[in-house]
From TrEMBL, chain A:
Subcellular location: Cell membrane
GO BP annotation list: transmembrane transport
Superkingdom, taxonomy of origin: Bacteria
Annotated protein name in UniProt: Multiple sugar transport system permease protein
Lineage: Bacteria, Bacillati, Actinomycetota, Actinomycetes, Micromonosporales
Classification via InterPro entries: ABC_transporter_permease (IPR051393), MetI-like (IPR000515), MetI-like_sf (IPR035906)
Any single GO CC term annotated in Swiss-Prot or TrEMBL for this entry: plasma membrane
Chain intervals for the UniProt region annotation (Disordered): 1-25
SUPFAM superfamilies (alphabetical): MalF N-terminal region-like (SSF160964), MetI-like (SSF161098)
Organism annotation: Phytomonospora endophytica
Residues annotated as domain ABC transmembrane type-1: 95-308
Automatic annotation (TrEMBL), chain B:
Spans annotated as Disordered: 1-23
Organism: Phytomonospora endophytica
Alphabetic keyword roster: Sugar transport, Transport
Source organism superkingdom: Bacteria
Protein name, UniProt field: Multiple sugar transport system substrate-binding protein
Amino acid sequence: MAVSTAPPPGRARTSVPARRKPADARRRAEGRAAHVFLTPWLLGLLAITAAPMLLSLYLSFTNFDVLSDWDQISWVGLDNYERMFTQDPVFWKSVGVTLTFALVAVPLKLAAALGVAMLLNRERRGTGLFRALFYLPSLLGGSVALALVWRAIFSRDGSFNAFLDIFGITGQPWVNDPDWALETLMVLAIWQFGAPMVIFLAGLKQVPTELYEAAEVDGAGPLRRFWHITLPMLSPVIFFNLVLETINGFQGFTSAYVVSDGTGGPVGATMLYTLHLYTQGFTEFKMGYASALAWVFLLAIGAITALFFSTGRFWVHYADGDGR
Amino acid sequence: MQSTDPHPRAARPAPAQRTSPGRRLRQALTAAIVAVPLVLGAAACSGEDEGTTVEFFWWGGDARATMTQQALDLYQSKHPDVKINATWQTFDGYYDKLATIAGGGNAPDIFQIDDNGLAEYAGRNVTLDLTPYVASKKLDLSNHYEGLTAYGQIDGKQVAVATGENTPAVIYDKTKLAELGVDEPKEGWTYDEYITWAASVTEKSGGEYYGTMDPSSDYKALWLWLRAQGKEFYNGTQLAFTQEDLTAWFTLWQQAREKGATPPADVVHEAVTGSVDTQLVVSGKAATSFMWSNQLAELGKATENELAMVPYPGDLKGQWARASTYWAGSRATDHPEVVADIINFLTNDPEAGAILGTDRGLPPNKATRAAVESAQTDPYAKATFVFENGMADKFGPAPAPPPKGHSGLRNTLRDIAESVTYGTATPADAAAQFFTEATAALSG
């Protein structure tokens, strides 16, 4: 708006009854139209996202229990936050499970995405097909059907154990074994590396081939070229994927919910933070407490993202400008 | 606004005079503002014009769906002014959905619930108080079994009406036991006798097949075990048993596991979290499952083998006439009279009773129960009657339905019992942990 209200140089022309509308008036009309067109989205943002978020902030200081009338809600101050850190052993367990999940699954997923993207970067016969095939799993996203299939494959009588049996290996009851259940979910998350892979592919296409040619002339092997050209040139894309996938990783819910039937079992091995939050809110009706959990979660993810951004300047290189 | 338009667009307004984009936009928005409520309003009206509509929500399977819909159709044919919108789903996720819609203030006018959820909902005033309709005989419970009626009362209010009666039952695979040449389990066994028997089943099978499910994480098995010793699970909103009791319970099943009577932890886990078709007696991994008496027919349909049932081990006074599920109304309903009338129809009408049979347990109405019993041809349903009738004079007094916070407590018991089955905690440590967490679960 600041731009359109500034007096333009050709102001005098408006006084002339011209056939053409003056530039600033047109811009102002367009700005108005833009706002009108944005209104539905803005209303949606306010009504569907912002208002419930503020409400949940309020609820986190109350004993709201989903079912009771609103007039039964009472203010409990910081009780919910206090309980979380002092009286809820499942809270700490879920924090541990979630951190383990994100710390293992996210780097491996990004590594898989980058590796496959590099393999599929060269134009060969059938590359398009392979790109589509590798992308396919992430189209299925956090679907319930996929989690159900996963549970069936990785159970004691599942097809994965039948496959291992061919090689004479006795399998595990993977999803029903506390030592393996979370790892099975990690494999599912890593397998869906299609989305970051596509972004990596686009990033790889942007790397000027002259750099590789020059390096090759200087006698750099593939590893050196990867380390000194691909990684630095790709660092903005890596940064983007890292931030996005970390947030995704922390928010994982569906697979754990479905595979464990909502229990976070066996023995709490798949009790992700989000699952704990859901259980507290919807099966134990402690919605005030669940809201507090959600806000602590939001702050934690915000802090981790901020950490990425503050360290980014040490390793992310932007090709245009000095980049630092 | 000038009438000259620098960007003529394809869509032309009807008036001959060309309008500016701004005015055109306003017209479009006005049209939308007028049209949307019209469409919605029309939809809303069409519902109201046809009379009373009642939302009806329950859980179950296909067979139950057919019966329930038939009974509801019968009601609607007798009351053409009432339309019943029935929705159902399987038990998995039923409570999640009920909580979500009830939390949104749109609780179904009538819904199915069981004692695990009743106090959670009644304690938060979600349920319709049926007491006045019972008093006025609009909802006639005079011919119902008193124990069942009482089991639907919380804080002196009739908050729900039993759909039927069931009792916990050990369901076993008769065919498989005959193949192995092992005796069938007997009524009145102690837990020690039962576990010794189960270990012998495992042994006879060569270790491929296990004698019994491990019910250590199942609140109802623990409850009956406590009651058989003259103890209780809850006293009001407090736990009525001690840490020593729970240690003994976990130890009992740990020893059973060591004797080979129960399957490995992961096999038990599959059945704990799963539904009917993952029960070990159906999946063919163990000879018995700890279930409810009315589930015999449902489990029987899921396997080719012949099933039968006995009461849980231990003194039979631990058992009581339990409401398998209830019908409850929503306090927010616009049609409380209709809600009471439909519940009255489903639990008292002889025709409805004949249609619903024993699917939700034995009918609560004495006359209906007798009629359904004499008309019974299905062997499993007959077995259910024999079982329940045989129990009738051995029942102990009914406890109060579990209190608010029970859902959380069940989760806690399940997770902590599993830490013993998976060997990550000793029975004593697990029991101590349970008592720490249980306080939080019940505090609400």
